[in-house]
Amino acid sequence: MAFLPALASGCGLDEVAGKLTMGQVLCEAAAMREITISSCLEAPLDRVWIEVQKPKLLLYVARPLIAFRPVAPSSFPERWEVRDYVVSMAWHDIVPLGRQTIRISYPNAPDGSKQMRDNGRSPMLRRWDHLITLEPEGSGTRYTDRVEIEAGVVTPPIASFAESFFAHRHRRWRKLVEAGFNYETG
User: Fold this and answer.
1) So where are the chain's domains?
2) Tell me: the pLDDT tens digits for 142-152?
């Protein structure tokens, strides 16, 4: 496997006769991916901000695709605190996906907006840097998810799943807003 040294050396193989080497193909696949999705929510920014800070929002918007279970600490707080949370995840609450660290912080946001960051990681994900940004838009709120993903050669399929997962989250967000923030709906 001649391409393994390229992976270890930071993808330094040159083109051979104008064609990409296996090492370059793998390095391209391993590159960081960024996904951004944005929606306008028909709710005031202050109300959306209150909900963003609740772990139960994560559980709601992820359902039924991903189930999150707290590991350390053993339960979620009412409001995300600046700290690390270790969670176990399961696809459709059936297939184990392993553990991930959710690392919560509240970065300084531009005037009029709010931000929460999960700069997480797992054994498979070297980087899962998820930034939620809220901005006023008319009488509602512009809600934006941006995530940067690095997972080596499995970055492309994880990024592909993340795109569909974030689209799902936005559909669930709109449903929650339409239900008056009643978490008991679906």
Assistant:
1) 1-30, 32-178
2) 999 999 999 99
Cα distance between residue 178 and residue 146, in whole Å: 23
Running DSSP on this structure, what letter comes out for residue 163?
Answer: H
Domain 32-178 falls under CATH 3.30.530.20: yes
E strands present in 73-157 = 84-91, 95-105, 114-120, 127-137, 140-150
The reported pTM is 0.83
149 burial type by CB count under 10 A (0-12 exposed, 13-18 middle, 19+ buried): buried
Q: How many residues does the chain have?
A: 186
Query: Kind of pairing, strands 114-120 and 140-150?
Result: unpaired
Q: Are 45 and 134 in contact (CB under 8 A)?
A: yes
